[in-house]
Amino acid sequence: MSDATQTVLVGTGALIELLLKGEFICRTTNEEGWRALKNSSTRERVEAYLNQINRSVASAAEGDVFFCGYLQLGDSERKVISSQFKDICQALIPLVEWLVLVQEASGQDAPLSEGAPVRLTELQSRIEDTPAFREQLAKLSQYRLFGSTSTNSDAQIKLVFKRLVELGYLVRPNAEKQIYIATGKLDYLYEVIRFIDETEGLSLEAQAETATQRDLI
Asked: Please, which domain of life does this record's source organism belong to (predicted)?
């Protein structure tokens, strides 16, 4: 193996490992890896390796978010995808309710998208000053996805944000600051929602209404 080939493999190896772990690579989470995958020759090398194990580089948000998909679907692959899709659907209602709360409390015209900052201290102040927002926070924080048992809004919102970082929907670049950045996984979530709406005729409001009691602790 030539030195040049070895360098290429070393350079793409970390990307391949992240993709196989189920990571979503975007400019916010990993700008170096994102730039590498935006480069067609690098992406082709990663794709060639993944193809050997029936995987493929998939993308969302018009090519700005990369993740790992299957090249061909057999029974075992369909079972994995079905399980993953079920997990996403179970998380859908609490995530949508959180997105709506952030949008309303922040006075934004559009939902959060990759790269958008969320200043927790400002958001918390607005929520605590508005009874309706406090009620929304209390309700969504009790979903199994977040699992809060606290009646204190400070504890509720901090747990919700901690879980969203763990789930990959937010990053916190500086541990000393209460500023979070939305990742491309949110944009992927929007595409999943659109897919469900188009293929299933799903009304998220209706689903939220019927799922509330089932998903609460």
From this structure: Bacteria
Contact 112, 105 (CB under 8 A): no
Q: What are residue 59's phi and psi, to 5 degrees?
A: -140, 160
- Give pLDDT tens digits for 168-192: 999 999 989 999 999 999 999 888 8
Among the ranges given (6-10, 146-150, 188-192), the one the predictor scored with the smallest mean pLDDT: 6-10
Exposure b/e, 186-207, CB count within 10 A at least 16 = b: bbbbbeebeebeeeeeeebeeb
SS3 track for 72-125? CCCHHHHHHHHHHHHHHHHHHHHHHHHHHHHHHHHCCCCCCCCCCEEEHHHHHH
Q: What angle do CA 32, 177, 143 make, to 5 degrees?
A: 90
Assess contact for 126 and 133: CB atoms under 8 A: yes
How many angstroms separate the CA atoms of 202 and 207, rounded? 8
193: amino acid identity, one letter = I
Nearest one of 4, 114, 125 to 62, comparing CA atoms:
114
pLDDT in tens, 101-111: 999 998 888 88
Residue-level pLDDT at 11: 67
Tokens 């493929």: give the residue. Answer: 56
What is the chain's Cα-based Rg? 19
Separation CA 182–CA 64 (nearest Å): 13
Half-sphere exposure of 200 (CA within 13 A, CB side): 12
